[in-house]
Prior knowledge:
The protein is α+β, with helices and mostly antiparallel strands. About 15% of the residues lie in helices and about 60% in strands. The protein is built from one helix and eight strands. The chain has one helix at about 1-20; strands spanning about 25-30, 35-40, 45-55, 55-65, 70-85, 85-95, 100-105, 110-115. The strands form two sheets. A four-stranded antiparallel β-sheet has the order 2-1-8-7, with no helix packed on it. Strands 3-4-5-6 form a four-stranded antiparallel β-sheet, with no helix packed on it. A hairpin with a 2-residue loop joins strand 5 and strand 6.
Amino acid sequence: xxxxxxxxALFLVSSTxxxxxxxxxxxxxxxxxxxxxxxxxxxxxxxxxxxxxxxxHNDSVKVCAHEMDQNNVRLDVxxxxxxxxxxxxGNTSVVVAKGATAMVSSTSAFRLDxxxx
Length: 117
């Protein structure tokens, strides 16, 4: 009986660890002045935030990740970016395939893309 329980216990531990593998994201903000990139690594059903405050700009992007299936991730994104061309604030949800990039927001002076690696 113990020999059967040990492999089952090991399987449960290893499958749980595999399910918690990080979802790696690259956030890219483009303005007329420059392009900035931020990296985040999240596990399922968690949120992360990237902030940068310097004289030329003030960026804040929060992302929550929810795996839809083995190939797709739903990202809930909130952003606030102040830069020389103005200020962009918003939030949205987008489903992105692993290995793909989605445009989250785009105006004449601002663009936010999210890549799932």
